[in-house]
Design brief:
single chain; 307 residues; 14 helices
């Protein structure tokens, strides 16, 4: 760790770190395919994923960080609540996207959150370098090509793509607010508040939209548990463990492998084979995102992307 408490920008993973990152990557890569295969309304999936996550994290926070919870000031509480609202918007757009477009496209386009994060940083007065803009240009070309491919498939697929892009935008807002909160609040406390807030807001949306929250078969409940335990808890936890020793740039770049990972799982188990032109489009998108992350993450506090 540097004097500022941030991981150095060039630290490379050890063998044990590589194993942990591999397990985390597999866990997050199952998220999209599992949600696409779950026989429940999209908003209900979003609710249960966060409700289960909150049910795990809130008791932990009450036991291990009760004094911190009581000592939060008004700004910290409002920022945590706002982050939870953006996370609810993220899941409320990205998970429905999986019902309209392919897992491969939805996962690739929701990963545009580093681009939106760069725009948010620029709007807040932080300088955005030329390499970041170059990466944004390459990634945008890939995204446009990918959405063009999906438009040739159907208007429904294009609508799903737009939902996924919106999910990336809301994820960037969540990350930006979360980064502010985590300057003074522990991960356990922040996560407990955020997941709980997200679950409550999604519950309201489900009730307003008369989404069925119960009555699922055992297989559906198992998938909901697997989604929460895998991507929501195991994947994020392991990436956070690795971030203590490995640079944010390396971890963020490795998380981009979720895109081909999710596409491969969807192809094998859901029969979702992407169109041929979608492959170079995804390569362009991943390359551009890699440039943005590499150019923009040095010296910044790391954050784990949501999926």
């Amino acid at each position: 760790m540097t004097a500022t408490g941030m991981s150095p920008a060039v630290t490379r993973p050890t063998g044990s770190d590589a194993v942990l990152m591999s397990v985390a990557l597999v866990a997050v890569s199952t998220s999209g395919p599992l949600m696409a295969a779950t026989a429940a309304p999209a908003l209900a999936i979003a609710f249960w994923r966060n409700a289960m996550g909150g049910a795990v994290m809130l008791p932990v926070a009450l036991v291990t960080a009760r004094d911190e919870l009581r000592g939060l000031d008004r700004r910290e509480r409002w920022l945590a609540l706002a982050a939870g609202a953006f996370l609810a918007l993220h899941f409320g757009t990205w998970i429905p996207a999986l019902t309209y477009t392919s897992v491969a496209s939805a996962t690739a386009l929701v990963a545009t959150q580093p681009i939106w994060a760069a725009f948010i940083s620029g709007a807040r007065g932080a300088p955005v370098g030329g390499r970041v803009w170059a990466g944004i240009g390459v990634a945008t070309a890939g995204a446009l090509l990918l959405t063009g491919v999906d438009l040739s498939v159907s208007g429904r697929a294009l609508f799903g793509d737009l939902l996924a892009i919106a999910g990336g935008l809301f994820a960037a807002g969540y990350m930006s607010l979360g980064g502010e909160v985590r300057r003074s609040v522990s991960t356990t406390t922040y996560t407990a508040l955020c997941y709980s807030t997200t679950a409550v807001l999604l519950l309201v949306a489900c009730l307003a939209g008369r989404q069925s929250l119960t009555g699922y078969d055992a297989q559906t409940w198992l998938k909901l548990v697997a989604i929460t335990a895998g991507a929501q808890l195991l994947g994020h936890s392991l990436f956070n463990v690795v971030l203590r020793r490995v640079s944010p740039t390396v971890v963020s770049m490795s998380i981009l492998l979720e895109i081909p990972g999710a596409a491969l799982i969807a192809a094998l188990f859901l029969g979702q084979t992407p169109p041929l032109l979608a492959i170079p489009a995804a390569v362009l998108l991943v390359t551009g995102l890699g440039l943005v992350i590499r150019a923009g993450s040095r010296g910044q506090e790391p954050s784990i992307p949501v999926e």
